[in-house]
Amino acid sequence: MELLENIKQNAASLKKRIVLPESFDERTLKAADTAYEQGIAEIILIGKKEKVLADAERLGLKNIDKIKITDADSSDKTDEYAELMYNLRKHKGWTKNKSYEFLQNPLYFSVMMIKAGDADGEVAGAANATGNVLLPAFQFIKTAPGIKVVSGAFLMFLKDKQFGENGLMLFADCAVHPDPDAEQLAQIAVSTGQTARVIAGIEPKIAMLSFSTKGSASHELVDKVVKATEIAQRTAPDMQIDGELQADAAIVEAIGKKKAPGSKIAGQANVLVFPDLQSGNIAYKLVQRMAGAEAIGPILQGMAAPVNDLSRGCSVSDIVNLIAITANQASMK
Q: Which CATH number fits domain 151-295: 3.40.367.20, 3.30.470.20, 3.20.20.100, 3.40.50.10750?
């Protein structure tokens, strides 16, 4: 797929340091081997070096011995990370002993590498639940300045090229925030627009979705989308954002012209922002399964540094793709 190849090529030029905390997972090791071979990023594996190398030899991997492998017991930075953890959380009763204890968890060690400036991003989740991946990131990396909500966007590659940008669309939020308020929904829209520009390389045309188009229905749920649209437009005046729009008005030109005449987005949208997680998650899975679309993600948005969460059913290529995406996100800092 041309876009993914472009993402990988750009990642290779950036030379970002991406940490993979799940070195015990065979898919992760294979992805690390591939990413190193393709030069997508500087890979850091968290784990016991002897075990990682033994696993790599068993799997016939040729590059793992060239990759940095570290953990809390072998790193000369562990004391520094423990001190940093303590200073960041001591107001909540955190102790230095607790810091050393938590650093034994590769997910926490990875996050502290990023916080200390020794890594640029993280990819995990092949063997850990989403909550386990995100909690350390929320505690120590936190959100980007001016952003209060983390969200998850999917790159949707559709077989029907009439939709979006030659078949490419972005859907959000499909992964994180169950019920965003208007301000949070506006931030999701702006964050997804930035992802469209930096990762997908397209100029976003953002539709704020609802069951109403331009006042065709009256309800507090519609009011939320209307308010979110206004906030997003003020926040990012350089982006094309419109709403509230029904899904057909957003993506079908003839319907968009009829329901929302004068709108520059109606019928032209390449970014769909759903009013809540239920609708977003349902929509991307329906499009993926019933329309045969390829869904890449979720790409987590809004963090001060990129931390991306895989599905536990992911493939090796899924991990490689997300490593490349994470490297590109790191350039947004």
A: 3.40.50.10750
Residues 79, 86: Cα–Cα separation, whole Å: 11
Model confidence pLDDT, tens digit, residues 272-296 = 999 999 999 999 999 999 999 989 8
Instruction: Locate 286 and state its tokens.
Output: 């329906």
Among 192, 107, 208, 106, residue whose Cα is nearest residue 156: 192
Tokens 């399964």: give the residue: 289
Angle between helices 106-115 and 78-89 (to 10 degrees): 80
Q: Cα separations (Å) of 28 from 5, 50, 209, 236?
A: 20, 16, 36, 37
The tokens describing 283, both together, are 């929509």
In this predicted model, what pLDDT tens digit does every residue of 44-86 receive, in sequence order?
999 999 999 999 999 999 999 999 999 999 999 999 999 999 9
Task: Supply the pTM of this predicted model.
Answer: 0.87
**Percentage helix, strand, coil for the chain under 3-state DSSP, each rounded to 5:** 50, 15, 35
Closest by CA position to 135, among listed 276, 13, 297, 303: 303
Contacts of 43 (CB under 8 A, 6+ apart): 18, 19, 20, 32, 35, 36, 67, 68, 323
CATH of 2-142+305-330, one of 3.40.50.360, 3.30.420.10, 3.40.50.10950, 3.30.470.20: 3.40.50.10950
